[in-house]
Amino acid sequence: MARLLTALQQIEPRLRDLYISTEWGTQVCGAIDGIELPLELMGNGLRRVFAYVAAVLQARAGALLIDEIENGLHYSHYAGVWKALCSTAHLEGVQLFAVTHSAEFLRAALTSTSNESPSLAVCWRLDRVDGKVQVTRISTGEALAADEFGVDIR
């Protein structure tokens, strides 16, 4: 639960505790500002991040694919979500593949990891050319430079 709590605090810094309660059926609960609440009442974004981090922990030393990762998340939390997932994935030895069509999420992912390690995030762009899928690798630096000049790499 400690890794889950640390990851969720990236999104909700007031979250002080996370535990399993059996008071009204088995459910995950937490304490925010001294008020204990079921995770179900803390918002869809927090539940979604909880599910993503739990999936990373379950995929230990494996790989995890999250499609449309930005769905259900407020854009202001994109960088925190990405940092929480990347740090948990790194600690667990999980290779994380996140699919997005959101330029905002891609920008947050690239900028939140570029200072820690330039090779932490890599973009793979898929295009259909003459009926075949063409895959292009775009490094963090190249992606950030393209974004700076307004080039859409999604």
Note down, in words, how this protein is organized.
By secondary structure, the protein is an alpha+beta fold. The chain has a single domain, classed as Rossmann fold (3-Layer(aba) Sandwich). Helices cover 38% and strands 25% of the residues. It is built from five helices and seven strands, in the order αβββαβαβαββα. Helix 4 crosses helix 5. The chain is elongated, with a radius of gyration of 17 Å. It starts with a helix and ends in a 6-residue tail after the last helix.
Number of domains: 1
Mean pLDDT: 88
At the fold tier of CATH, the topology name is Rossmann fold
CATH architecture: 3-Layer(aba) Sandwich
Helix-strand pattern: HEEEHEHEHEEH
Radius of gyration, rounded? 17 Å
How much strand content do the residues show? 25-35%
Briefly, what CATH class? Alpha Beta
**Largest sheet geometry:** 3 strands, antiparallel
Low-confidence stretches: none
Oligomer: single chain
Helix content: 25-40%
Please name the defining characteristics of this protein.
two-stranded parallel sheet, Rossmann fold, 7 strands, 154 residues, three-stranded antiparallel beta sheet, alpha+beta
Topology overview:
Elements: H1 2-9, E1 15-21, E2 27-32, E3 35-38, H2 44-58, E4 63-66, H3 78-92, E5 95-98, H4 103-114, E6 123-129, E7 132-138, H5 140-148
Parallel strand pairs: 4-5
Antiparallel strand pairs: 1-2, 2-3, 6-7
